Amino acid sequence: MSQSASGSSGITLYRLEACPFCERVVRKLQEYDLDYRSRFVEPMHSDRNVVKRISGKRTVPAIVDENTGVTMSESANIVEYLEKTYGEEARADGGEAHADAEGGDA
Fold this sequence. Notes:
The protein is of the alpha/beta class. The chain has four helices and five strands. Strands 1-3-2-4-5 form a five-stranded mixed beta sheet, with helices on both faces. Strand 2 (11-15), helix 1 and strand 3 (35-40) form a beta-alpha-beta unit. Helix 1 packs parallel to helix 3 (75-86). It is globular. The model is unreliable at 96-103 (pLDDT under 50).
């Protein structure tokens, strides 16, 4: 895992403490040894304005991948995106990104 505190990573993960949906995404980021920033958001759904501004929803997890220009929410979609973009399949294809999905979890 390469969680960046300096802000140099191209991936930002918006998450809650102890959220199982968020942890699913963290595990996938760690599996692919991707640098990312964690931004912990307010527990109250109605107070998650920062997430709403970036993804259009107040649900977490949400990611912004500056490497590819993708912003999305919903853990299953994010995991699928990470697999296609950074997983073994993507590496075999030359690392091209192929994702555009939306949804919501928490």
